[in-house]
Design brief:
alpha+beta; Immunoglobulin-like; C8orf32 fold; Jelly Rolls; 3 domains; 16% helix; globular
Length: 643
């Protein structure tokens, strides 16, 4: 990091009045004997306190320090996992944050006495997380139901631009969370709160800390409930209560202002010149011969793009790491494996060698969180895809998923907008879903008078559903795929046939000849049968009375179920569920259901559609009720009586 000369005189060190809620090892007996957390009897564990302080020291260099002290009560066996702890440690080149003074202990009650078991060095180890982060892991010893675990550590960092954020809300209740941010005068950090819970206390004042004039920001949260994820959410990190810091600029006396956050335009200029991003595209001339060979005899531009995309997907393996930069492409080509950044920048460079106009688009995946465009910082991104111009169309491409068509991005990328890094086309662009999650089922079954069904059922999978089926089929083989597909079903599969399970530009198809013994119920002269042999919606994913977060499907959904049931001789329909159409305003979601009897055959048509990927909180009650009505309708049975 940049060395600084005599910036100001240091005055004698003294600390601003702040301290941790308790001394390490000082365990109150009332916490030790707690059996149930009073505010949440279902809690498997509770954070008794989580205390942190972060500060920047300026002597002849800038150094960031971060101290933390955490204590957790384990209430149930489901909470034992909190004894495994990971500290994310940033590194850049040979420089890495250092974890100092790490200590931990477990406390158990034995013969009405609190017994401490200290953590040994054998319980500590480090492992790689991704290109810029390692994780310092440790495990607290002798943890059981009723234990209290405690740990503390200090991080020393040269990366002062990454001032630690602080998360008040966790997956278990938090009795007390307290954070101090001590920021010296020369530094200006943008701060933004997120989440839906109000802090108990927030104070900010000027004071002296370790001999420095600082702005002390003090945050306290008390009795925060557990954050409970709900279906169809993006990253939980988008919604938990949390304070975030982003370094805008700093200025020392007698020096010019140093911009850090800058602007998106500045980031664009930096990345275009970066050796592991922008220049990767127009360099790597060694790829020209490979591109020429791949595209030999192909004149259609789209066909060239398809050929190059297929080449990268078939010959290179994604290692699972999400990133937006690349190692030197010669190394990537040698290894035949790499991060999302490696593979997509390789794809971009090869398309460039084929004569296409190529830009890279930065984005944040769904599990990484949405982008706050008011804060132009590169760490909001964790992924990049290719933007390539073909005629008058701009296509977005990704090389990590072998089971998607060339111009369909993985679902993880469907997270709002991305930033196109370009000399000519710089700016924000939408990241749309080009395909749906679509399944079509057609069945033809005959019902016997003892309630057994026999016949054929056909599945056709499109879009992201086809991708999922192809991936399972490829990884598990045909036998493993069938085993998973029929798990939990009381079906006898007499024969099966699969088509186009490797042709990713077509629908994936599976046909089964089956016998089903337990679908219908026979009671004397009456047979009760539900018309949905497969893909029935039995449970509402939305259970809470209201919702604080948007419902984000990522892409549209369509499930079409059609078919016919041939009735047994000597039986007539006594009751037939009525047809129904349920629709949300502006056709945001729609369900159509229709049963028609023709002679001894009942024809079934069911169409379930979610026609927009994102529903805001205000839409939630209607969406929940929509599912309730679908579930109720699909639960209705056909009643047959012996003539």
């Amino acid at each position: 990091m940049k060395k600084l000369v005599a910036l100001f005189y240091l005055i004698p060190v003294f600390l601003f009045a702040q301290k941790a809620p308790a001394k390490f090892g000082d365990i109150p007996m009332e916490d030790m004997t707690m059996k149930v957390y009073p505010l949440d009897s279902s809690a498997s564990a509770v954070v008794l306190f989580d205390y942190g302080v972060a500060y920047i020291s300026v002597t002849n260099a800038i150094q960031l320090f971060y101290e933390r002290h955490t204590r957790i009560k384990i209430l149930k066996k489901e909470g034992l996992g909190f004894a495994d702890v990971g500290i994310r440690v940033y590194h850049e080149g040979a420089t890495e944050e250092a974890v100092l003074n790490l200590k931990g202990a477990t406390y158990n009650l034995e013969n009405n006495k609190i017994v401490e078991t200290k953590m040994s060095k054998e319980g500590m180890f480090k492992e790689k997380f991704n290109r810029n982060f390692n994780i310092q892991k440790f495990t607290l010893p002798n943890v059981k139901e009723g234990s209290i675990i405690e740990y503390s550590y200090k991080i020393s960092s040269d990366f002062y631009t990454y001032f630690p954020n602080w998360q008040f809300q966790k997956s278990i209740p938090v009795r007390l969370s307290e954070y101090w941010a001590m920021i010296p005068q020369p530094f200006f950090y943008e701060k933004y709160m997120q989440g839906y819970l109000q802090l108990s206390t927030f104070k900010e004042e000027r004071t002296n800390y370790y001999g420095q004039d600082v702005t002390a920001s003090h945050y306290i949260a008390k009795d925060f409930p557990a954050f409970k994820p709900e279906p169809y959410m993006t990253s939980e990190d988008d919604y938990v209560s949390k304070i975030n810091f982003a370094l805008s600029h700093y200025q020392f006396s007698g020096e010019p202002l140093h911009e850090v956050m800058g602007s998106w335009e500045k980031l664009n200029a930096i990345l275009l010149k970066s050796d592991n991003f922008g220049t990767v595209i127009n360099k790597s001339g060694f790829l020209k011969d490979d591109v020429a060979q791949i595209t030999t005899g192909i004149t259609d531009p789209t066909a060239k793009v398809v050929a190059i995309s297929n080449y990268v997907k078939q010959n290179f393996e994604w290692d699972g790491e999400e990133d937006y930069t690349a190692y030197p492409l010669k190394k990537v080509v040698e290894k035949k494996k790499g991060s999302s950044g490696d593979l997509n920048l390789l794809l971009g460079s090869m398309l460039d060698k084929a004569g296409f106009e190529v830009d890279m688009v930065l984005l944040s995946t769904r599990d990484h969180g949405f982008i706050r465009q008011s804060y132009p910082m590169s760490r909001q991104f964790n992924y990049t895809v290719c933007s390539v111009k073909v005629g008058d169309k701009v296509l977005l491409l990704d090389a990590t998923d072998k089971f998607l068509p060339y111009d369909v991005l993985p679902e993880r990328c469907l997270n709002g907008q991305g930033l196109r890094i370009s000399e000519k086309n710089f700016g924000w662009i939408d990241i749309p879903a080009k395909v749906k999650q679509k399944t079509y089922i057609n069945m033809d079954m005959a019902l016997s008078n003892d309630g057994k069904l026999a016949g054929k059922i056909n599945y056709v999978f499109d879009g992201y559903n086809a991708q999922e089926q192809r991936e399972n089929y490829s990884k598990k083989g045909e036998d493993g795929y069938k085993k998973d597909f029929f798990a939990g079903k009381q079906w006898t599969v007499n024969s099966s046939e699969f088509k186009d399970m490797k042709e990713k530009d077509k629908s994936a198809k599976a046909t089964f000849d089956v016998s089903i013994d337990e679908h219908a119920n026979v009671a004397g002269d009456v047979i009760y049968i539900n018309p949905f042999v497969s893909m029935r919606t039995e449970e509402n994913p939305f259970k809470t009375a209201d919702r604080q977060y948007p419902v984000d499907y990522g892409s549209k959904i369509e499930v079409i179920y059609m078919g016919k049931i041939t009735l047994p001789d000597g039986y007539a329909v006594d009751e037939l569920p009525k047809s129904k159409v349920v629709a949300l305003p502006e056709n945001a979601a729609k369900y159509t259901y229709n049963l028609v009897q023709q002679g001894n055959v009942i024809n079934i048509t069911s169409s379930f559609q979610v026609n927009k990927p994102l529903f805001l909180q205000a839409d939630y009650p209607l969406l929940k009720e929509f599912y309730n009505q679908v579930i109720a309708k699909q639960a209705e049975q056909i009643v047959l009586k012996k003539k």
